[in-house]
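Reviewer 2 asked us to include a model.

Predict the structure of this chain.
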Amino acid sequence: MALEPALHAERRGAGPRLVLVHGFTQNCHCWGPIASDLANDHEVVLVDAPGHGQSPPATPGFLAGAKSIGTVGGRATYIGYSMGGRYCLALALERPELVDRLVLISASPGIEDDLARAERRLADEALADHVVTVGTDRFLAEWLTQPFFATLDEETACLRERRHNTSAGLASSLRHAGAGAQPSLWPRLAELEMPVLLVTGELDDKFRGIATAMTAAIGPNSTHVLVADASHTAHLEQSAQFLSILRRWLVHTAEEAPER
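Predicted model (structure tokens):
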């Protein structure tokens, strides 16, 4: 059986390992001040997700992409934003021995309804064709006009870093790691035994509701925290607030979580 191509990752700092996985159209340099702050007392592994940055294109199979992140990240606390959160959640279910703790920022377990998921897959395929047709720069300009991103400023939009992605890479991500390609993980959430932190912006009604439902499905080992005055990209819009939430939770779970 052929091995999946290795993903690109960069490492900073020393200490307990944190693996950070970005969202769609971003790359490993889009964590802003968060990566620098965490690297003061952690080993921070910044992964380019499949089809992004210097990593190879996404290959068929969403779960294979999740496992490839685990291969480069190793055993750690995994922190994923949006698409990166979907990947980290899948990894926690497929390879739980690698995931000591799980942090999901504005992430979803996928689309539960089969028909809606099939429709989304067709939409993702059409969007992938569009990326290739118009090119990365124009696609990014269109992508960032969504209401989800209305609260981003020039710095938090991370546009310069996003432009390092290729249209072919982004198209492969849409086809193989979009919400339409991902199997629904809703029925498996109760399998998660590690501590789970769900973070959403208070202005992001859709993902705030998803996180509330996820917390109920996961059980008492999960915590949902809102970031004030933030929307979908809450960790970048309010990075100091997010770091305060994350650091408090890391300390609490290091002290309270049972050995696994």
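The chain has a mean pLDDT of 95. The longest strand covers residues 99-105. We have added this to the supplementary material.
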